[in-house]
Known about the structure:
- This protein is of the alpha/beta class.
- The chain has two domains: 3-133, HUPs (Rossmann fold, 3-Layer(aba) Sandwich); 145-255, Rossmann fold (3-Layer(aba) Sandwich).
- It has seven helices and twelve strands.
- The two termini are 23 Å apart.
- Mean pLDDT is 82; it is low at 237-242 and 245-252.
Amino acid sequence: MKNILxxxxxxxxxxxxxxYAVDFAKAFNAKLYVVQVYNVYTKxxxxxxxxxxxxRESKAFLNDLVSKIDTKDVDVVVKTLKGKLIDxxxxxxxxxxxxxxxxxxxxxxxKDEVFLGxxxxxxxxxxxxxxxxxxxxxxxxxxxxxxxxxxxxVIKKENVLQPLKxxxxxxxxDANLLLxxxxxxxxxxxxxxxxxxxxxxxxxxxxxATTYQGVLEHYRTTEPDMLCVVRRKRGFxxxxxxxxxxxxxxFNSNIPVLVLSGLK
Length: 264
């Protein structure tokens, strides 16, 4: 893992999240891109210089945040980017060859009952960029036990497991695979290919209405310090991601959640 990107908002957790990102990047000897995306909606002929002002203030805000953390000799690149959030992040990730994006649950200071705010939810729901959702206030520590939860182990995309491989290899972690038989189960869903088999220490089978219910059932017995899920049309957060905001009553996690791009 060579390049990691962390979008920064104005939440109270921004400083803590940025320190976690630096510590995580340090573990991989990776470059860290700290970015803030802004957009300006104005009528023609008005506020001509507003772009320059917002860019300057955004850059100053990011530099001030970086000055308050221990960068630990990590190569930190600060960028302000203008454009629509998703399109701009996808272009930035492609240009910088980003391996992983670190997302805090709420990039803005919003209600406590919200797990993923509108911006974070948008990044998770609308992109295919591998992401790590880091709980608020989380202090970095090596990841030793991973629980990967899926309803189908069918893999058709190349390199989709790469972020999981990076993390497992770097921290010498063990990975348990939870295969959840849901009402949408197909006969081939539980057939593991060689790439996935090579990553897994143990396989657990469960029958639940949703993958998330399967996680809740087996969470305590496996005691993971990272949860790994995938994006799909009928995936882990299908109903919960119909809207960008995700409430804690629908889903919550006190451990980092690695979100891989869809396997198919």
